[in-house]
Design brief:
CATH superfamily of the largest domain: Type I PLP-dependent aspartate aminotransferase-like (Major domain)
Order of helices and strands: EHHEHEHEHEHEEEHHEEHEEEH
CATH topology of the largest domain: Aspartate Aminotransferase, domain 2
Largest sheet: 7 strands, mixed
Number of domains: 2
Shape: globular
Helix content: 25-40%
CATH architecture of the largest domain: 3-Layer(aba) Sandwich
Number of helices: 10
Strand content: 5-15%
Number of strands: 13
Oligomer: single chain
CATH class of the largest domain: Alpha Beta
Distance between the termini: 34 Å
Strand order of the largest sheet: 2-8-7-6-5-3-4
Length: 375
């Protein structure tokens, strides 16, 4: 698929400049059709084709396994949200009084509140603060000691766009027998992601941002050797080894990551995300990453030409992602946001500035229109 074909995969209002993929993404045309077809089928036939739906669920697990380079679909669970997936980790570990968790002050609440909630278990949460120009990874690593049980960070920070050096943190975790948990919602689908390369133990990512899926369905990766490390806090028919044997009174949790899926699957979300990921695989994650970073580099290059603009996102190329945050020295952030919104630019206010997050298919002309409004 070439660049000029990207726009054919979406039917966004042409007057709208959608650069808010770091929030909730629009669905591709094929995803709209998959959801519509599923609704029509259900309305006409109910669950007559349920076995075929399960096949789609299996396809989605394989897509997600491939997307993050996991060893097996046995390591993939389909949960409701990033928050639920992270909670499975936070309340699955058998914490001991005096254990510590290290995380970053830049984290979205999903990756902060649940760790702070562990204070009732006498777990210390160390929230590391650092300046934009600081070595964030070093600050996080330096905050660990022999009490540290787990590090949890986002792959890409939501309010700055800082792409973390996960390999560096993961290697430290492996060397020191620390568990490594990654909130990857702002990276997977936009930039390549490899759970083995970064030595992650757990990864959580909802599908409604850069993966272009619907809200309510998230990837949870649990390294195989940790499947039974996490104690279960939710139980239901779907998480046992033989879920379709409804008459048995003998049961045990599944030996795969399905053990974390306590209830019925979100089939509507499965149909949507499976369709969206089919587009990502057709285009190719390497091409998507190149296009996303081309957008970021273009925005930073153009914004940097104007002395009234301060770019709040990292300028080092290794730290760039699909997010660019900036502010204007003469126009308050809320006023600039209102100006952009009134001109049909759909963005967000985050990190003390305006957050722009275009995806691979965003046309350069749209970015140029934004720049004209800003400068």
């Amino acid at each position: 698929m070439t660049n000029k074909n990207y726009e054919k995969e979406f039917n966004l209002n042409q007057e709208l400049i959608h650069v808010n993929h770091a929030a909730v993404a629009p669905w591709p045309i094929r995803t709209q059709k998959a959801v519509s077809d599923f609704a029509t089928e259900n309305g006409h036939q109910g669950s007559l084709n349920y076995l075929q739906w399960i096949e789609q669920e299996s396809k989605l697990r394989e897509q997600l396994r491939n997307l993050i380079n996991a060893d097996s679909t046995d390591e993939i669970a389909l949960l409701k949200s990033t928050s639920e997936a992270l909670s499975v980790v936070a309340y699955g570990i058998d914490w001991q009084a005096g254990d510590s968790v290290v995380t970053s002050a830049e984290e979205f609440p999903s990756n902060r509140l649940l760790w702070e909630s562990l204070s009732k278990l006498n777990v210390e949460v160390r929230v590391v603060t650092y300046a934009a120009e600081d070595d964030a990874e070093k600050a996080i690593i330096d905050a660990t000691d022999n009490t540290t049980r787990l590090i949890s960070v986002s792959a890409v920070q939501f309010a700055s766009g800082r792409k973390m050096d996960l390999k560096r943190i993961g290697q430290h975790c492996e060397n020191n027998k620390i568990l490594f948990c990654v909130d990857a919602i702002q990276q997977i689908g936009a930039l390549s992601f490899d759970v083995k390369a970064i030595k992650a133990d757990f990864v959580a990512a909802d599908g409604h941002k850069w993966m272009l899926g619907a809200e309510g369905l998230a990837l949870f990766y649990c390294k195989r050797k940790h499947l039974k490390l996490l104690k279960l806090n939710q139980y239901g028919w779907h998480m046992i080894e033989n879920p379709h044997d409804f008459s048995t009174t003998e049961w045990s949790p599944a030996n795969t990551a399905k053990r974390f899926e306590c209830g019925s699957p979100n089939m509507l979300g499965i149909m949507a995300l499976q369709a969206s990921l089919s587009l990502i695989f057709e285009v190719g994650i390497d091409i998507i990453e190149q296009q996303v970073l081309d957008n970021t580099n273009y925005l930073i290059e153009q914004l940097s030409k104007h002395t009234d603009i301060q770019i709040l996102s990292p300028l080092q190329e290794s730290q760039r992602s699909g997010i660019v945050v900036f502010k204007h020295s003469k126009i308050p952030v809320d006023e600039l946001f209102e100006k952009l919104s009134s001109n049909n630019v759909f963005c967000a206010m985050r990190g003390g500035g305006i957050r722009i997050s275009p995806h691979f298919y965003t046309e350069r002309e749209k970015l140029q229109q934004i720049l004209k409004l800003v400068v």
